[in-house]
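Long-time lurker, first post. I've been practising inverse folding by hand and with some scripts of my own, and I keep getting stuck on stretches where the structure tokens seem ambiguous. Below is the full token string for one chain I'm working on. Before anyone asks, I'm not after the true native sequence, just a reasonable design that respects the backbone. If someone could post their per-position residues I'd love to compare against what I wrote down in my notebook.
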């Protein structure tokens, strides 16, 4: 068994944990494209036809042969015969010949023979069957060619892509109504503690409502997983062993909150260690908040032991769970945590050798974000509710000064 509370950096802890998890290509299911937001594609999706499938105009104007406009200017316009209008959603009923033009609208299909479009504002109507062109156009100007967006057979959405609104729109452009998506990893959530009661209960003076199950459930859903609640387990090892065994048999990942501190009542690490091989991989991360976190693997199933304090639990889960779910769904492009640079408003002390994640409130001054730290206690969830993001203090920093630029991550 690893030495408990032998602290690792967050990145080293993640790397060591991943080395012990047997990742494989996920199971997949066929879903409606319209239900695909946030899901991960399980196979390459190829273009069924060129996009666009016909050459079209990008402006309102006149379809022409570019050579007919050469030399045209405001002072010396050229005159081109107008032979008709191209209706939207209709194929042109004639071929364009030299010296002629056809009225076309944005998105309209370019007639055969035309190779450019003159913008409406660069023309004048001289007679009902003739236009004045006051500016020359080059070949292919103001048009989109067949296949300019994608070619037929081209991979437009690779396997392992998180589906966004743009991907859904692209799939609908090809009429693709269903896709194969990676199964949502099932994440079992276990809360422990004799003092913890369900949110719908009225706590006694010494009890608290369960916060962690619900904030973690939201985090799981946000990153493509399916959360399964296993309720609140009292501080008795036999009870936790039973519930953990059920969760491991039914889920792909298990998260346990509370009981991870190095104290006389600590039972979580021992129960996890006995639940499967290799057991506890990391117990203790060089970070604040969340130092006593546990990363484990039980017979191939990842397990995370979180501190019971809501801020610590959510910060640790936010740092490790999304990366795990990405790997389990074979997501090929890691989601970049959104961050901005901001100016620290006050001096802030920090312990060198430890990464700190501090809740901050953001304001704007002279076009620069200002980060005001929220002095928090890790058992107070509204410290996070009030925050706009988390200021990161690197491990090599021995405190920061007012006016220093810091990175703020959005959780």
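-- Answer (accepted) --
I ran through it position by position. Result:
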């Amino acid at each position: 068994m690893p030495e408990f509370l032998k602290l690792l950096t967050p990145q080293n802890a993640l790397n060591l944990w991943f080395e012990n998890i047997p990742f494989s290509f996920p199971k997949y299911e066929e879903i409606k494209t319209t239900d695909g937001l946030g899901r991960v594609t399980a196979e390459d999706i190829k273009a069924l036809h060129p996009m666009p499938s016909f050459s079209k105009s990008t402006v309102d104007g006149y379809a022409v042969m570019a050579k007919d406009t050469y030399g045209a200017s405001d002072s010396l316009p050229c005159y081109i015969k107008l032979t008709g209008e191209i209706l939207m959603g209709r194929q042109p009923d004639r071929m364009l010949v030299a010296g002629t033009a056809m009225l076309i609208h944005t998105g309209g299909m370019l007639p055969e023979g035309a190779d450019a479009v003159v913008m409406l504002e660069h023309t004048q109507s001289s007679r009902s069957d003739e236009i004045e062109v006051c500016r020359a156009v080059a070949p292919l100007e103001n048009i989109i060619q067949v296949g300019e967006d994608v070619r037929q057979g081209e991979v437009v959405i690779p396997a392992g892509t998180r589906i966004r609104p743009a991907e859904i729109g692209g799939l609908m452009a090809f009429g693709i109504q269903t896709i194969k998506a990676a199964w949502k990893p099932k994440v079992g959530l276990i809360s422990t503690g004799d003092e913890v009661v369900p949110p719908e209960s009225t706590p006694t003076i010494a009890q608290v409502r369960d916060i962690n199950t619900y904030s973690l459930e939201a985090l799981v859903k946000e990153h493509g997983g399916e959360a399964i609640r296993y309720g609140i387990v009292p501080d008795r090892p036999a009870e936790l062993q039973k519930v953990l065994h059920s969760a491991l048999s039914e889920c792909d990942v298990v998260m346990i909150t509370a009981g991870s501190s190095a104290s006389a009542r600590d039972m979580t690490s021992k129960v996890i260690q006995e639940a499967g091989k290799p057991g506890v991989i990391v117990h203790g991360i060089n970070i604040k908040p969340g130092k006593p976190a546990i990363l484990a693997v039980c017979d191939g199933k990842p397990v995370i032991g979180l501190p019971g304090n809501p801020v610590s639990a959510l910060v640790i889960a936010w740092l490790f769970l999304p990366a795990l779910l990405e790997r389990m769904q074979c997501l090929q492009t890691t989601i970049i945590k959104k961050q901005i640079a901001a100016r620290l408003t006050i001096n802030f002390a920090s312990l060198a050798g430890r990464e700190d994640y501090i809740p901050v409130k953001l304001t704007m001054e002279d076009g620069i974000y200002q980060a005001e730290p929220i002095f928090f206690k890790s058992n107070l969830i509204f410290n996070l509710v009030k925050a706009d993001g988390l200021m990161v203090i690197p491990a090599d920093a021995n405190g920061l000064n007012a006016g220093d630029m810091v990175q703020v991550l959005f959780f």
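A couple of notes from the structure itself: Residues 91 and 283 are 68 Å apart (CA to CA). The longest helix spans residues 310-328. Happy to go over any region you disagree with.
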